[in-house]
Write a structure and sequence with these properties.
alpha/beta, six-stranded parallel sheet, globular
Length: 349
C-alpha cells in the first residue's frame, strides 16, 4: 500500500476495511506501507525536500527487502494504486515476471492521467503515469472502483472486476442521522487536494450561511482558503470521523466534468448516504450511480440547480429524513463491505 494505515480514504475504504473479513476467512496477510507516519506528515508541505527524499528512500528500501526475500511467503501480492510513487514499475515487473507472483491490482482513480498538486509539482515530472497500463497487463486480476476505471483496465487485462468503494455498515457506519434535532449544517469532507472543487459553490454556501440559520462545515486535513460567518472547520481524525459527519444535515460533493473526475469513486457520497444524510453532487462518473435523483439526493450541474436543491433540503425536514433513509438502504445493498465481501474474496481465488 502507498500510505500509512488509517490515513488515506482510498486505502481505508478499499483495502483496510476488508482486514477483518480476511481474518474471518483465515487468510493470512502482511501489510507494507511505502510511506510511514513521519513521511505522511510532510508529504503535502511546501519545501521539506530533504525529508521527502528521505521518506522516498526508506520506502524503496522496504520494497527491495520484499524482493530480496523472494516474497516466498505469499501466494498473492495485493497492490493498491502502485508499489512505488515515483519512477517506472520495476517492482511490479520483478514480482510478476521474475518472481512469478500473482498480482492483484486495485485502483480507484484515473491515475494514468497526470494530476498532481502544486505542492508536489516536481514529483509530477517523475511520476511515470504511463506505468498504470503495464501494471494492469502484468496483473493476475485487476479491481477497479467504477466502470470507467474497469474499461481502461480491460484494454490491457481480460480479468478485471468491478469492486465499488465500500463502507462497513455493521461495525463502523452503523449510525443514522437524526434529522429532527439540531441546526441545519451543509457539510463537505475530503483532503485539501480536492477542496478546490468547492470554489464554484462557495458564494452559494456563503449566501445560505448569511441569510438563514445555516452552518457550513468543512472536515479536512487542512483549513480552507475561504472564510465567512457560520463557517466551521474541523481537522479530520479517524477517531471522530463518524460523529463529525453526523453533524451534517446535507452532504455535498461538487466536481468538475472532466476525465479525471470520471475516475472518482464517490467516497464522500457513500459516507453521507451510509449515515442517512442526503447528498447533493455533480452528475459525473459514478456519482450518478450512487445518488438517485430526487430519491437519495440531488444531481446538480448549474449554480441555479445547486441553489434550488440546497434550498429545498434546508426547508424540508421530512424530505431530508426520507432521502437519508433511502440512501442508507442503497449503500447497504450496493456499496457496503457486507454486500461486496464476495467480490473482494474472489480476487484471491
Amino acid at each position: 500500500m502507498p500510505y500509512p494505515l488509517h490515513k488515506a480514504p482510498s486505502q481505508r475504504f478499499r483495502v483496510e476495511a476488508y482486514f477483518n473479513l480476511l481474518k474471518e476467512q483465515n487468510i493470512d496477510y502482511d501489510t507494507q506501507q511505502f510511506l510511514d507516519d513521519a513521511a505522511w506528515q510532510v508529504l503535502y508541505l511546501r519545501g521539506s525536500l530533504v525529508k521527502k527524499i528521505t521518506a522516498v528512500c526508506k520506502g524503496y528500501l522496504k520494497r527491495l527487502q520484499l524482493l530480496l526475500s523472494g516474497a516466498s511467503a505469499y501466494s498473492h501480492i495485493f497492490i493498491h494504486r502502485e508499489a512505488t510513487p515515483l519512477g517506472p514499475p520495476f517492482i511490479e515487473w520483478l514480482l510478476a515476471k521474475v518472481l512469478k507472483k500473482k498480482i492483484i491490482y486495485d485502483f480507484d482513480d484515473a491515475i494514468w492521467i497526470p494530476n498532481t498538486s502544486k505542492e508536489n509539482r516536481i514529483a509530477s515530472w517523475i511520476k511515470a503515469f504511463w506505468k498504470i497500463k503495464h501494471i494492469c497487463h502484468w496483473s493476475y486480476k485487476v479491481a477497479g472502483g467504477n466502470e470507467y476505471l474497469c474499461a481502461y483496465a480491460r484494454r490491457y487485462n481480460n480479468n478485471v472486476v468491478l469492486l465499488p468503494t465500500s463502507v462497513d455498515i455493521v461495525n463502523r457506519y452503523n449510525k443514522i442521522k437524526d434529522h429532527k434535532t439540531g441546526k441545519i449544517v451543509i457539510g463537505w469532507t475530503g483532503s485539501h487536494s480536492t477542496m478546490h472543487y468547492l470554489d464554484d459553490i462557495v458564494p452559494l454556501l456563503k449566501k445560505f450561511a448569511s441569510e438563514s440559520d445555516v452552518q457550513v462545515m468543512i472536515i479536512s486535513n487542512k483549513k480552507p482558503g475561504f472564510q465567512f460567518p457560520n463557517l466551521q472547520f474541523k481537522y479530520w481524525t479517524e477517531a471522530t470521523e463518524i460523529d463529525d459527519l453526523l453533524q451534517f444535515t446535507i452532504g455535498i460533493m461538487p466536481l468538475k466534468k472532466d476525465l479525471w473526475s470520471e475516475g472518482k469513486c464517490g467516497f464522500k457520497l457513500i459516507q453521507y448516504s451510509a449515515l442517512g444524510i442526503p447528498a447533493v453532487t455533480t452528475p459525473v462518473g459514478v456519482n450518478e450511480k450512487i445518488v438517485d435523483q430526487g430519491v437519495t439526493g440531488f444531481l446538480c450541474e448549474t449554480k441555479d440547480e445547486w441553489y434550488n436543491a440546497l434550498k429545498i433540503l434546508i426547508g424540508n425536514e421530512c424530505l431530508r429524513e426520507q432521502m437519508g433513509n433511502e440512501g442508507r438502504r442503497k449503500i447497504a445493498d450496493q456499496f457496503s463491505i457486507q454486500a461486496n465481501a464476495g467480490i473482494f474474496l474472489d480476487l484471491f481465488n
